[in-house]
Amino acid sequence: MQPVIKARSLRKIYGNNKALDGVDLDLLPGRILGLIGPNGAGKTTLLKSILGLAPVDGDISVLGMDPRRQRTQLLEQVSFIADTAILPRWLKVKQALEYLAGVHPRFDKNRAQVFLQRTQIQMDSTVRQLSKGMLTQLHLALIMAIDSKLLVLDEPTLGLDILYRKQFYSALLEDYFDEGKTILITTHQVEEIENLLTDVVFIKNGRFNLNIAMDELHSRYTELRVTDEHVPQAQALNPIHSRPMLGGRAMIFESADRAALRALGEIKTPGLADLFVAKMQEGASHA
Amino acid sequence: MHKLLIQLKREFWECRSSFVKTPMVTAGILMGLLLLGVVPWHSKISGVMQQHKEANPLEFKMGSQVFNELGQQQSITTEAGYLVHGLATVYTVFAIILLLVLMFYFVDTLYSDRRDQSILFWKSMPVSEHSTILTKLAAGIAGAPLFYAVAALATGALFLAVFLFYAGFLWNIPVPGMGATVLAFFKSSLGLVLGWWLLVLWYLPLFCWLLISSAFARKSPFLLALGAPLAVAVLEKWVLGSHNIFSIIKNQIVAGFYNFQVLLHGPGAVFEQLGSTLASFQLWIGLLLSAALLAGCTWLRKNRWEI
């Protein structure tokens, strides 16, 4: 299968800061990839290179096209929401629909209207008059009405309350996503997207320190909850991370012998947030 | 084609008040002044006549007769040429307001969406930067002037109607015939359109300079657009003791407006002027510079748009 995104040794340096330091990525169609990393880790730079918004060194092709040189053509099949606050404030809702219908060959105006009817958004309102949650709903309605092959979401739910956040992702899954589409999401709210991802990438200092399918993650990583008395034994098995919990510790192991761990306590698959913390601190404690 | 049209529409959605409302309001004010002006003037003239009648009851003739007699002595008859002049004055008011509006439009249009980050929304659409910039230029030099022209012509038509009614009916002054009046109106309308395009030929480099300032500036595009040439001109004066840059810019501005003023003389003069304009070396340098500045805008929008 032809990957939607194929990137090889992407590099980008801003001054002394390596925003991307040799990144390879293959994203296949029908996947939902979560790109997770601390601020300044290179997430936005990577997204910009995929969307042709900034030049980077290395090879990148999106849907077989060069995002820099074939940007206009590429954007007929790639949609993105960069941040919730970017809709122009003077734009009216109906004008947004008219504009997209005019410039975007894959935009379905009726579809967008159906989505908007479910919300409180009025056609005559300007963006300025909408609340932050409504803005996100509007942007999502516009984007979901585009029959694109790749959707890139950069912190799409930043600053929204939990109701809107849940609504956002359920709409995305129920009304938009199908096997012909591919989604790439970056967010800090890891827990909320954990269950919808098929793949996950952790990025730190411009490098991927984890790039794995969620199925594989379940078999490779194990979290052990161990009581104080078994801590020394568990420690001997080289956990990649250990954090205190009530009456003991929770340790995360990579490619460990599950039978041996089970003898020491309760085991489960680590949550993405805990694994993220573990992987981000990896190496740091020894350094 | 539809895509370009909707992009043009977008500019009008954003700049509705300066592109559409301003010429309408200007026309409203000018029409109001015109109509209001007639009333006091009329009562003043009537008053003078009355005094004249009381002072010299025997000699007094009707005002129209006075005018008629005067008309036989001197050329008080209104010629169609005067009408063209009068209309040109009306149109010049609109042109000056339009130039001010365009100055602010061009200096802001490639900056405001970068400042509020909405550029990312526009950049998520399958529209090339090249066509965005050309649409904005077209909206400024051709789109907005359309509304200003309609407003100017409507005001001009009212001006003619009031003038003819007042002079012809109220005071019985010989006025040009219907044919000559309509011809004067069409001549000056055509002069207005052609004069505008002559002006654009000269002002294009200035418009493009404002655009590139708008695309380049991180803080105040206006300051950059005004400050950079000023700084270079002062530097030239200081180092070389000459003032060529200042003269060139001044010439360009004066030439543009001089060309627009040609509309005073109707379309024939405009065509004549077009000949000498196209023969001007400075004009062609200016147009080449405009093309380079536009290419620069496109590059900046692609590569250096973040503030």
Helix content of chain A: 25-40%
CATH class of the largest domain in chain A: Alpha Beta
Number of domains of chain A: 2
CATH architecture assignment name of the largest domain in chain A: 3-Layer(aba) Sandwich
For the report, how would you describe the main beta sheet of chain B?
A: none
Helix/strand layout:
The complex is a heterodimer of chains A (287) and B (307).
Chain A: E1 5-14, E2 17-27, E3 32-36, H1 43-51, E4 57-62, H2 71-74, E5 78-81, H3 93-103, H4 109-117, H5 132-144, E6 150-154, H6 162-176, E7 182-186, H7 190-193, E8 199-204, E9 207-213, H8 214-220, E10 221-227, H9 231-235, E11 241-245, E12 248-254, H10 258-262, E13 266-268, H11 272-281
Parallel strand pairs in A: 3-7, 3-8, 5-6, 6-7
Antiparallel strand pairs in A: 1-2, 1-4, 8-9, 10-12, 10-13, 11-12
Helix pairs in contact in A: 4-5, 5-6
Chain B: H1 2-14, H2 16-55, H3 63-73, H4 80-109, H5 112-115, H6 119-123, H7 129-170, H8 178-216, H9 221-239, H10 244-261, H11 266-278, H12 281-303
Helix pairs in contact in B: 1-2, 1-7, 2-4, 2-7, 4-7, 4-8, 7-8, 7-12, 8-9, 8-10, 8-11, 8-12
Write a brief caption for the model:
The complex is a heterodimer of chains A (287) and B (307). By secondary structure, chain A is α/β, with parallel strands linked by helices.
How would you characterize the overall build of this protein?
The complex is a heterodimer of chains A (287) and B (307). Chain A is α/β, with parallel strands linked by helices. In chain A, 32% of the residues lie in helices and 28% in strands. Chain A has 2 domains: 5-205, Rossmann fold, CATH 3.40.50.300; 216-281. The radius of gyration of chain A is 21 Å and the shape is globular. The mean pLDDT of chain A is 89. Chain B is an all-alpha fold and 307 residues long. The interface between A and B is medium-sized, with 31 and 24 residues.
